[in-house]
Amino acid sequence: MSAPHYTHPDREREECVFEVRGVTKRFGDRAVLDDVSFWIPKGEFLCLVGPNGAGKSTLLKVCLGLLEPDAGTVRVPGAQLPDSRVLGYVPQRKSFARRFPAKVEELVAANLRGKWPLRLRAAEREATERALARVGAEHLWGKSLADLSGGETQRAFLARALVTEPKILILDEPEAGVDVMGRRELVEVLYQVSRSDELAAILVSHHPETIARTAERVLYLEHRVVAWGLPQELLGSAELAAISDPRLRSTRWDDDSRPPPVPARER
Q1: Domain count for the chain
Q2: Phi, psi angles (nearest 5°) of residue 192
Q3: Which end of the chain is more exposed for a tag (fewer CB within 10 A), N or C?
């Protein structure tokens, strides 16, 4: 098997805020993750791509501390994982875990306490207001969760992930269940969030427009790291020509919103 293709300079490791090193996870005799390693510097938005069944969801669970790897480590310098104050998470499938009527601000504030609040304290109210404002969802305050559209639900969960002011944001297909217009609006929100406060993020997505707008690096996973680097270099490269999603290969990258290219190098 050929070595993975990288275009990620060593100098950026000095600003690493999240590192996965040598992670392997097996289910029976099958290695779903095979010696996966990568790191994310402060403020970088990493898009995780690959075919269905490539191990993306398993990798996210390992990163979140929901699944123990058979080998390898996940590390955030200066922090003990799992910790919602360090890692913010937006799941693909949304569950409110509450059967009686609830408001958007209660969903967001619940991430501060670890349980649903009966009444918001002053500090919780301020933090919730800030989180909703960051995703352009101030108007959702007081709205019932049952009345939200798909796009509004995604914004509410994004605010919930941001309310603890984490260092790293992990998003599992945030466009799921959102119509085309809502997806465009959500992509713009993600872009703005990714450019603010030097927040690092891992995003799983199958939508080229999301990746083109937000990704500073792309990691192509197929049980192992096949390639990792700048999107405009990797997704049009010969290394991925035979296996990449054709929608991604044909994506036009917005050079105005992309970082400058770095020389490709093999590891």
Answers
A1: 2
A2: -65, -40
A3: N
Q: Tell me the pLDDT tens digit for each residue of 209-257.
A: 777 777 888 898 999 998 888 877 776 665 555 455 555 554 444 444 4
In a domain, 258, yes or no: no
The average pLDDT across 179-196 equals 77
Distance CA 77, CA 98 (A): 35
Q: H/E element holding 19?
A: strand 16-27
Strands 225-229 and 5-6: parallel
- Strands 71-75, 16-27: parallel, antiparallel or unpaired by DSSP? antiparallel
Surface-to-core class of residue 17, CB atoms within 10 Å of its CB (0-12 exposed, 13-18 middle, 19+ buried): buried
Query: Model pTM?
Result: 0.79
Q: pLDDT (tens digit, 9 = 90+) per residue, 51-99?
A: 888 999 999 999 998 899 999 999 988 777 766 678 899 887 666 555 5
Residues 186 and 196 in one domain: yes
Final residue of a structural domain among 164, 190, 216: 164
Picking from 105, 135, 164, the residue at the C-terminal end of a domain is: 164
Task: Tell me which residue range forms the domain holding 68.
Answer: 1-85+166-253
| Chain centre to alpha carbon of residue 17 | 14
Does residue 263 fall inside a structural domain?
Answer: no
